[in-house]
Amino acid sequence: MTHEITVIPGDGIGQEVTPAAVEVLEALEIDFEFHEAEAGDHVAEETGEALPEETYDLAASTDATLFGAAGETAADVILPLREAVDSFVNVRPAKAYPGVDALRPETDLVFLRENTEGVYSGHEDRLSDDLSTLTRVVTTSASERLAEFACDFVEDGEYDGFHIAHKANVMRETDGRFRDAVLEVADDRGVQTEEVLMDAFATHVCLDPTQFDVVACPNLAGDVLSDLAAGLVGGLGMLPSANVGPDRGLFEPVHGSAPDIAGEGVANPAATIISAAMLLEYLGHDEEGQAVRDAVEGVLEDGPRTPDLGGDASTEDVTAAILERLN
Ligand code: NAI
Ligand code: MG
């Protein structure tokens, strides 16, 4: 069986780290067909549109999409792309790797972020010169879908259970609905849960991240808290992510186009290559996914490093070292 993969390098270092991840995928004994597609600032400058229809259609029809980064047009690219793959959860692991200088080297947790609603539903209004409002949307169905995913994730990964981060003591209707729906699914499935207020979580995770393994969050909380965790594990060059839908997925590093280093050939490819490992696992290639992870971790521990990790190696040097460990 051939897996059809859309590849969208995008802008800036997206053009450098995405080919590195494709090289890693090509080195495996798996049949892929790659469809390269355009998106981002450079396309918007030419055509006025950051996400061409062909790119959207490819993402909406292929098995998976690997995306690098976009620049100023990021929101115009990523939000529709997440919708194209019908992604309801954003999986964001935050792990400190051996050999990487991290604020909290013991950090190893995964955020499961609701990816379709909350305050990011786009229902904002400017009602007068003085007043703007935002309608926060929470449905039982989306909360349950996230909870089912969290239960599967906990069972597959053999975790003890998961935390639910919320603020239902204040947002009783919306976060209350989210919490109740998640608790009910987890209870039916016999999966242990623990509640944590999202503001208190921010403190706890900084003081002792080992208290947490898997954390299910509403959309905004997941966005903010996972970026906070990025600060604990050695920076943005290290964080992968997966936008998972029922039939397809979108895999991307958390970082952006990094205009300050773009074109120099020194971007850290780790986040994108680990995102490719998540793509492999999504497609059922667990063994190959693990092999890629092991190769990346080995190189992070004692191989060449890009400048963000204190080394002077290029993206190509690091990618070559990862490929060598893979073979
Ligand atoms: P950024 O993630 O691009 O860069 C932040 C800092 O981290 C920079 O100093 C950069 O050099 C460094 N960095 C990031 N990834 C790195 C890597 N792989 N290797 C080495 N260093 C790395 O975020 P910033 O500067 O806030 O935004 C730059 C542009 O990216 C903006 O136009 C923004 O809109 C866009 N952006 C796009 C995202 C996406 O496409 N998913 C996400 C975040 C920002
Ligand atoms: Mg963010």
TrEMBL record:
Gene3D superfamilies in alphabetical order: Isopropylmalate Dehydrogenase
**Enzyme Commission number, as recorded:** 1.1.1.85
> Which Gene Ontology molecular function entries are recorded, alphabetically?
3-isopropylmalate dehydrogenase activity
Q: Domain Isopropylmalate dehydrogenase-like spans what residues?
A: 4-322
Q: In which domain of life is the source organism classified?
A: Archaea
Question: Which InterPro entries does this chain map to?
Answer: IsoPropMal-DH-like_dom
Q: Which UniProt keywords apply?
A: Oxidoreductase
Q: Which family does it belong to?
A: Belongs to the isocitrate and isopropylmalate dehydrogenases family.
Q: What name has this protein been given in UniProt?
A: 3-isopropylmalate dehydrogenase
Please name the source species: Natronoglomus mannanivorans
The taxonomic lineage of its organism, from the top, reads: Archaea, Methanobacteriati, Methanobacteriota, Stenosarchaea group, Halobacteria
The gene from which this protein is expressed is: leuB
